Fold this protein.
Amino acid sequence: MFSAAMVGVEPRPVNVEVHLGRTNSKFGLVGLPDTAVREARYRVKAAMASSGYDMPRSEVTVNLAPADLPKAGSSFDLPIALGVLIADGKASTRHPGVVAVGELALDGRVRRSRSVLAAALVAARRGIPCLAPREAMSEAALVPDVELYPVEKLSDAIEVLSGDIQPAVPPSDRVPVFSSQDLAEVRGQEFARRGMEIAAAGRHHLLMSGPPGMGKTMLAKRLPGILPPLTRSEEMELALVWAAGDRRRPASGRPFRAPHHTASLVGLLGGGSGIPVPGDLSLAHHGVLFLDELGEFPSHLVDALRQPLEEGSVTITRRGISTTFPGRPLVVAATNPCPCGWRNDTVKRCRCSPASVDRYRRRLSGPLLDRFDVRVFLGRMETEELTGAPGESSAVVRSRVEKARGMQMERGAPNGDLSTSHLDKLPWSANAKKVLALNLDQGLLTGRGYDRVRRVSRTLADLEGSASVQKMHVLEALAYRAGF
Amino acid sequence: MNLIPPAVPYFSHRLRLAFSGWHPQRMHALVQRAGDPAGAVRMIEAGRVKSRPAARQAISVSAEQRLTELQTAGVGVVLLGAEGYPPWLAAIPDPPDLLFVKGQLPPEAGVAVVGSRRATRYGVNLARAMGAAMGRSGLTVISGLARGIDGAAHQGVVEAGGCGIAVLGSGPDRWYPVAHRSLGEALLERGGAVVTEYPPGTVPEPWRFPIRNRIITGMSRVVLVVEAAIGGGALISARLGLEQGREVLAVPGDIDRATSRGCNELIRDGAMPVLGTSELLDYLEMEGILPPAGAPGTDQPSEQPDRKRSDLEVAIGESGVTVETLLERMGWPLPRLLVSIGELESEGRVVREGGMVRLKG
């Protein structure tokens, strides 16, 4: 009898071994169980009794192998119960190996537990059937090519083992789900919308600056909706990250995480006292990580984000065991242009002293800021725009984004990840080169700014379906470069 | 350094009185009462008027010693009624009796640029552009070296390599605000001047500034108000200018902004609205303040032929706009607009800063 546990985002098989000894009525459980696992003894006894099976009158020893891997949670209830029943001769299995996962209720029902996904993956890898709680079928169904048996009661599981039941047919095709929040609801702010489209198309991190109430948060929340749907492998990676944190994704579709600026380092990057859990950075893997009020984030948090963002993963070491969580979100940051927020506004007056504005901007600048390829400014909207026709819908924008992203994937990587040497090799038109050189000569572009403009130019060309980067792409890209 | 020969009537008494630290109006009243500066000195020394010991001690220092000190400090003195005193200033109702001068006073009257210290980017950019335009045309720009509009106008003059005069509310040896020290020194380097009626050592005190404004307007033939809220020093200057018979020009602003209120009210009350730098220069030329372009005397090399500005450049303007505003003004699709701005930027005709686009002044 097999089950599974998660080590970081890695599912590991766990062999549930049961031995019946001679002495009387003892129930031993070994293999680094935590409290929840140890208490399985009581749930298993009660569930068996409720389902009409007695506990064997002999000593029961259960070993969860490998014995040195820490196990946590209630998902071993079902395999332990099945193992005991088989050892006692009350049940038999026609399958040479079976993976089972699920928590037992005292009345014998099988509840959802963690590790369902891990169990399904282990089963798929070994080519053996998987028994999982019916409640958690959707999680297990992510895994392709696995013989899945949904179980509701302990007795169902026994029937499955005896081989009378057909495996469940997993839903054939996934329907991609997108956020219900549509870009069409945002009126005006064309500059910022264009910036979002570019950010989504090229996977460029996006910085939005503007006074309060101009729709920065509203726009950021709509970014997952214009990204291409998750591929199956992306969805699997993401599901594993969430499973590692023992969390259920609230919806399918790209995740959106918005940690507050008072968040802890552990909350943001992952960690924790026991088995490490992923932080917001990893929970937003393949999705959007929104940093509202970037200027309010303490610098140690901002600095800590930089390296994981470059590597696409974060490694946490706890008690000598290091765990690596993937974390490759699209980062969107929002900031006010000054401490009071009203700088450059046409109606409200900024009350900040020049010195405090300088200080504010200095806090924002730094290594992380360099990672934002696309920078847009939100301005006050005229009444006409607020009441006028709705903007383009997310679906329309998304179709352009998908096309542009497709061109990039043919080249190998999203434009946001292109390095200087990659950029040098791209086909640049003579005029595009001329404009870039002109801006460099005039000191309008610095070295880093130069690469940012080149990456964004490439995305603009992709959005147009152009094989080489033209002069006009570079000229437009200049608009997203400006700092504060 | 134009040190005045002591042949001017009451020269030494007048110089000594200038060090009293008194409010200029109070000193003027005392001299009137005493009949002449010598009488005023006697009254203070005899304790017949209330004065602090420090003031009595300050005026007791001999004129010769003062002159030596001033010479060492590189500060000149010009007296009302004597050679070198600005003629336009001499004609105002209450001219300062004596001016401390650093640098060279130009013979012609100039244009005063006044405005709010808490200026918006709109005002600052315009003040700088207008200061630069006048500086290039060979006009003297007179202002108070304060934060905001004053400093921006001086900055424009300096950038254009023109001549500017800073009228201080402190002694000629104190820069206020301190941050404008290098700006003041740049003015001096380019043949401008620093003028004040307060002797060296006078610290900037709030009450010294409003009365200083009459010198700014007095040395000018035209007063240009760039941005003013209600109740600010800029409006005092405008009123003083009117009392002195100067033409007052004002730059209009948004009617719903407190920072534009003063200028807009001035325009309503009859001030001439200024709608751009070229219009300002045209007006000054028409009034004969600026010699006509190409006329002998203006040996300023004219700028490179002024290419006609495109509609987009006109829409961008000198004070800066956001992209969203430009979209509305031009009605172009966003990518086309951004490409065009990028073109202008690459040509060095516009700059982008902090979400704003503006013409390079």
User: Anything to note?
Assistant: Chain A touches chain B through 35 residues (CB under 8 Å). DSSP finds 19 helices and 18 strands in chain A. The first helix of chain A runs from residue 35 to 38.
